[in-house]
Amino acid sequence: MAKQILYKHFAHHATFFFFICSLLVLASIMKTTTATSSRHQARDEAGDLKCIEKERQALLHFKSYIRQDPDGRLSTWTDEKKVEEATSECCEWSGVTCNNKTGHVTTLQLSNGYLEGKISPSLVNLTYLTHLDLSWNHFHGPIPMFNGSMTQLRHLNLQGNVFNETIPMFIGSMTHLRFLDLSFNHFTGNIPLFIGSVTQLRYLGLYLNDFNGTIPMELGNLTNLQELSLRGLSNFTIENLNWLSNLSHLKSLYMDGTSLAKANNWVNVIQSLKKLSDLSLSRCDLS
Ligand SMILES: *[C@@H]1O[C@H](CO)[C@@H](O)[C@H](O)[C@H]1NC(C)=O
Ligand SMILES: *[C@@H]1O[C@H](CO)[C@@H](O)[C@H](O)[C@H]1NC(C)=O
Ligand SMILES: *[C@@H]1O[C@H](CO)[C@@H](O)[C@H](O)[C@H]1NC(C)=O
Ligand SMILES: *[C@@H]1O[C@H](CO)[C@@H](O)[C@H](O)[C@H]1NC(C)=O
Ligand SMILES: *[C@@H]1O[C@H](CO)[C@@H](O)[C@H](O)[C@H]1NC(C)=O
Ligand SMILES: *[C@@H]1O[C@H](CO)[C@@H](O)[C@H](O)[C@H]1NC(C)=O
Ligand SMILES: *[C@@H]1O[C@H](CO)[C@@H](O)[C@H](O)[C@H]1NC(C)=O
Ligand SMILES: *[C@@H]1O[C@H](CO)[C@@H](O)[C@H](O)[C@H]1NC(C)=O
Which Pfam families does this entry report, sorted A to Z (predicted)? Predict the structure, then answer.
């Protein structure tokens, strides 16, 4: 009797176990079929990501604006099969990253490349770009007006180039930016008020430029800022630092070499920044 019950029990469990196994197998078959069918849209026969033709043309146009590329950073950016490793699939090009499902270009990472030239306006066609890093090259102006385009851009790094105009107005419309670095260029004129509209910024680097005038109060709108670098702005006088006490998330503040001689309440303002852990105020003519 006991044996029979035990057997029944076992049979019951075995059936159930078999049922679960079948479900799992079925689920995994369905998963692979859907995965392959969605992969087919964005990948070629070899499994490489296929890039979007419009974006490929935008990149080729970007390349056509580069006068010097001594390290051959863009040598893979070509249709010609003669070049080793060349492919027309722009997602395979050096410095280019695409979304691995959609094939849209999301990242352009070309820092430290000794590239010399202008920035092509064709970049407006990289609609899904989130990360643009052209730092430490020899790019010069004028920067094209990327008005209302590149709305996905989160990270813009133009540090260490030779831009010598005023900060372009389209920056004020890039309200999703988290990271903006324009340091170590020759940007002139004022630090514009419209920087105050880029309220999602976590990092803002403006150091070592040729700005004149004074700091706009509107920087006090950047309440998410965690790091701010305004060092080495030699023709620049900061008369009022009240806006700074609005930046309650600020962890790092670098102002060395920028005169604070006229900002007489700087002690109170700095003391109000409770999260500050890195502070650099050397050669600031503190009074
Ligand atoms: C696709 O990208 C995601 C996120 O970037 C990553 O986690 C994933 O491993 C990638 N898949 C393939 C097949 O490269
Ligand atoms: C963007 O791409 C379209 C073709 O899709 C082209 O006609 C247009 O000139 C491109 N824009 C720029 C600024 O290169
Ligand atoms: C870009 O915006 C500026 C300032 O808002 C404006 O003067 C210019 O005409 C705009 N350009 C385009 C192409 O929309
Ligand atoms: C900016 O640099 C270019 C050379 O790249 C030069 O011709 C131009 O005069 C400079 N403009 C200013 C305002 O210095
Ligand atoms: C700064 O914020 C105030 C309100 O908080 C707003 O009225 C003003 O337009 C903002 N300025 C900029 C440049 O975004
Ligand atoms: C600072 O201003 C003076 C006079 O306006 C000018 O001669 C000098 O070139 C400026 N220096 C910088 C670094 O902009
Ligand atoms: C700042 O420089 C620009 C030209 O570069 C000049 O037109 C303007 O008068 C200067 N402003 C100040 C306050 O020196
Ligand atoms: C500080 O931020 C508030 C909003 O959080 C804004 O209304 C005010 O204008 C800012 N003050 C300055 C000096 O920017």
Answer: LRR_14, LRRNT_2
